[in-house]
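Entry 12.
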Amino acid sequence: MAGTDYDVIVVGTGAGGGAAIWRLCEQLRNTGKKIGVVEAGPILLQTHAGNLPTLRFNDYFLNPKISRHIGNLLPDLPGAREVIGLGGMNLFWGLASPRMFISEWLNYPIDRNELELYYNIAEQQMTVTKTKYPLSESFLTRLWEGGFPEATIIPRAENLEPAKYGPVVYFSSISFLGSAFMQRPFDLAINARAVQVLTDQGKVNGIKVMTPEKKAYELKAKNIIISANAFQTPRLLLSSGIKGRAIGHYLTIHSFLSSSFQVKQPQSAVGNSLQTVNLLIPQTEKETNQIQFGISERYKTLDNAAEYHASTWSFGKVESRYENRLFLDPSRRDSYGVPEIQVHFSFSEKDKSILAQLADRLNKAASVLGANKQPEICIALPGSDYHVMGTCRMGDDPSTSSTNRYGQIHGVSGLYIADNSVLPTTGAANPTLTTAALAIRTADYVSRQLD
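Predicted 3D structure (tokens):
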């Protein structure tokens, strides 16, 4: 790769990077344009971890060789983790793919109809579906009649269609990469850590990478798309001397509650088939939070009443504030010589109020569903939502945003961002679908610039 002049290099292969690579390969498939991809880590898995039934998912994910518990070094985000490897955290994500609540779109410098278009493209490529079982209707009816008319099935990135040679049920960015390669070839370097963005007179001209043996290479490119994650992307920009008042600032996450409880319903109402139901109470104008339910059956005997176990994952919106930020720690450097990061983060009074409202909403929903007792609610450590966003957020004003409406860094031609860091907010919605949609849009823009 060091001897090639690339038209585009994508740094990182998570949800945003994978989406950008797929779209670039689709748009440029009949051209001679050169596409390169660099990934800091190794190949960990060849599919989403959930597609490997013999893998102990949680134990594997928590293995320090697989996911790095960076929260150990970030007192304000003690729950934070990251995965450095092909596919990134998207190898382990929970598949929930709701769109942002419509009022949150006002925070984006993009026309609503255009964002709708890219949501549609991302949903189709990620096989986002709402799978309804007979049991779904039963519990949805309880929620609708109990004061939650907005309740619905969780949109999930999973393909439940039968396949002759075994399905890839759970979507990950590995699927993006496979689809990309089916369109056209691209160069891929793993274990290639990006350590510096190379620029000249306000224009990007390449990226410097290092191998685990600390051998350095300079890769030339007309355009660079950085998709390293919301921690590593601003770190790379700041350590490269890229200027921008908002870079690293406006860090946001989701407040996060979890709980579990039992509900019962006569088995005769749903038949004998084992089912798992995924339900969503989404954000509304009144409630800036969302609740996800996973409800599964646990039979005592087939002719007895079924016992259902409900697990919940509930997220609250967190304000985007300048003072919540990521910055370089000059006293610590990694083995590549790049300064480590530190974070200043706190919840505002409004954030705390939203969290309290979320707990009340969760208790009411559990009661409506038929919980046998009030659920015990766990407040998760900040950062354990794994939804860090905003550290290179998009906008029209360079004083309050890092990139323009196409993800291009203000003042640096050819340098783009395509990961969670560009999101000004997603309200209470999971960020992955929105990140993928915006990454596809950025790839389209870059492709047009190459014409």
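Annotation: The chain is about 25% helix and 25% strand. The chain has one domain: 5-449.
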